[in-house]
């Protein structure tokens, strides 16, 4: 069923034409879940398997970043204006070194000014500089450090979120209900160390008829989670209690990243996994999720 929904999402993303019914310029107030901006990345509007499939997005307070599926290039682009869908500007492509299996997803750490990144193998965790240098920090032992892991259609597709509140990482296998939680400090053997709350399970059945995490972000009290194929995004506490849901009308929603500085409202960025675009949706409240894992002032 998961693969069927994902196939439908691919088809929908290939033909969807986005309509932004927003006032021009930055808005002082709006509604949670409103689509604030969209940027089209250079891969084009069709599904190009070599480049268009990219599950992750990053934001460093100034620019957006993304990588291809297990890619070897870090793409940087300007934040688009609010109220419209625009082609990407300010493009900079930086080769990634030090990650033999490529990079699958990224999450910005404001305090360290680096990205935390998951390798294309799904288990290697790196620090990735904006200059493209990847340094291995630890590897997740797939047999012992992912309790209850379910292998889905894309078992190596992992999304990541950095949490500055306790200097931890939230590790979200694609299409799974379980999001794992790790310390950033490895064990003496260089493997992952589960946090005191080792995982949470998400539940969207009442709203969507199924549950899965397609992307995760954090920068405050709650985790924000996307679900591909359902036109909503969700917030959960860090112990797994559902907080609420808001519109995110993107058929193939991928990873999320928080932004409370670019516009007159705080937004959550989402990468279209199967299409060449990145969208910004309004957060449920101002500064609910801040940049780089948050616990910082704007």
Q: Could you explain the architecture of this structure?
A:
This protein has 298 residues and is mainly β. It has one domain (2-14, 27-293): Neuraminidase, CATH 2.120.10. Helices cover 6% and strands 40% of the residues. It contains two helices and 21 strands. The chain has helices spanning 2-15, 205-208, and strands spanning 35-40, 56-59, 63-67, 73-78, 85-87, 92-95, 103-109, 114-119, 124-128, 134-139, 158-163, 168-173, 178-183, 194-201, 215-218, 222-226, 232-237, 242-247, 253-259, 267-272, 277-282. The protein has a five-stranded mixed β-sheet with strand order 5-1-21-20-19, with no helix packed on it. β8 (114-119) and β9 form a beta hairpin. The protein is globular and about 50 Å long.
In a few lines, what is going on in this structure?
Mean pLDDT is 89; it is low at 1-19 and 21-29. The chain is built from 2 helices and 21 strands.
Radius of gyration: 17 Å
Tell me which CATH architecture applies here: 6 Propeller
Distance between the termini: 42 Å
Q: What is the C-level CATH assignment? A: Mainly Beta
Largest sheet: 5 strands, mixed
Low-pLDDT regions: 1-19, 21-29
- The count of β-strands is 21
CATH topology: Neuraminidase
Shape: globular
Compressed to H and E, one letter per element, the order equals HEEEEEEEEEEEEEEHEEEEEEE
Mean pLDDT: 89
């Amino acid at each position: 069923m998961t693969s069927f929904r994902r196939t439908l999402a691919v088809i929908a993303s290939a033909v969807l034409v986005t309509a932004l019914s927003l006032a021009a310029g930055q808005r002082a107030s709006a509604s949670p879940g409103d689509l604030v901006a969209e940027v089209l990345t250079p891969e084009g509007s069709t599904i190009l398997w070599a480049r268009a499939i990219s599950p992750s997005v990053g934001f460093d307070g100034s620019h957006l970043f993304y990588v291809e599926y297990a890619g070897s290039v870090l793409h940087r682009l300007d934040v688009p204006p609010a109220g419209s869908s625009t082609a990407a500007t300010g493009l900079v492509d930086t080769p990634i070194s030090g990650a033999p299996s490529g990079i699958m997803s990224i999450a910005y750490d404001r305090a360290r000014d680096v990205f935390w990144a998951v390798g294309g193998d799904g288990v290697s965790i790196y620090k990735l500089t904006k200059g493209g240098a990847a340094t291995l920090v630890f590897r997740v032992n797939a047999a012992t450090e992912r309790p209850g892991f379910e292998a889905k259609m894309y078992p190596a597709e992992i999304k990541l979120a950095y949490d500055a509140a306790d200097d931890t990482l939230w590790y979200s296998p694609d299409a799974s209900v379980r999001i794992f939680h790790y310390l950033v400090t490895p064990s003496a053997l260089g493997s992952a160390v589960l946090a005191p709350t080792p995982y949470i399970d998400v539940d969207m059945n009442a709203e969507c008829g199924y549950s899965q995490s397609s992307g995760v972000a954090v920068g405050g009290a709650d985790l924000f989670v996307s679900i591909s194929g359902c036109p909503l995004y969700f917030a959960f506490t860090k112990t797994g209690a559902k907080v609420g849901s808001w519109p995110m009308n993107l058929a193939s929603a991928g990873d999320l990243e928080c932004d409370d500085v670019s516009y007159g409202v705080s937004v959550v960025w989402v990468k279209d996994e199967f299409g060449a675009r990145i969208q910004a949706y309004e957060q449920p409240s101002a500064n609910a999720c801040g940049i780089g894992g948050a616990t910082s002032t704007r």
